[in-house]
Amino acid sequence: MLEQLTYLHGQPAVTGVLKAAPSDFVVIEDLGFEPCGEGEHIFVRVRKSGENTAWVAGLLADAAGVNRNAVTWAGLKDRHAVTEQWFGIHLPGKGEPDLSVIESDSIQILEARRHNRKLRTGYLKGNHFTLRLTGLSGSEGLEVRLQAVAEQGVPNYYGEQRFGRGGNNLEAAKAMFGGKRIKDRNKRSLYLSAARSMLFNTVVTARIEQRVAHTLLAGDCLMLKGSHTIFSEPEVTPELAARLASGDVQLTAPLWGRGRLASQGEAAAFEEAALSELAEWREGLEKAGMDQERRPLLLRPEGMQWQLEADTLTLSFFLPAGAFATSVVRELIDAREADHYGETHAHSGE
Questions:
Q1: Which DSSP letter does residue 258 get?
Q2: Catalytic center at which residues (predicted)?
């Protein structure tokens, strides 16, 4: 799906490989708070390699003697990576389970602490990434591109994983909007998210194509930095432009749903025009009960550092929850992801 989207810094010339090994893609969750130490939930920090989130959740449920739906997580993590992520286990009135029984060469329990609230999807500050891109075809222009990404950011595109292999989730969403009934709530949610993400990406790429990704349009919907507070002003003022340039506010694009666009005037007209040929997708999301929301147009990796040696680039940065590291990589190199899908994995579900 990303192949059709416009680059902010131009298409990269350097090619390379992403995830040649799980250790080439390291993700560490940051909840943004510490579990309080008491309550009917246990927060468990797990380090895993080559295992998917749902499979580990099932192991934790078995070890704790609870139903699978009593185990939650803040965010799904790629199976073909080394990740440290949090799981929540609802254990009202029960003692501490022995979770060490699930440990193996690929799964380690790092920490387990009580908390008084359920761990929900998106219930985290963000993720720290350390990536190793290998087999680079060269390095010409790469240093300049790295600096540009660090300073100006990248399009906040939803990554390929949101759409499923070959866009399967979008195909399923289209069938659902055409009348096919999806009984599984999780699958339904997945398909709606894919459709919504596709519309968002469409608006973002249109702004880049029209060279207004960094430019205020009259009526643009802005988001305050570090919050989800949004507002829209009918006119472009020097003060507003200065706040955008300083990073105090961010341009946003719509996550489609019911209700009026949060943008107005010229900006709203731009967004409507960008999505004019996708009316059936918009209507499908509205009928499914999704509400209008907003998401930042651009994504700036925080604390970005890199080391370039021979044919390998090691890269580290922090992204807020919901952002995709692959969208950062895409602006740097033309990356081919190592094909792990031919492998068999009896309990991964992938």
A1: B
A2: 78
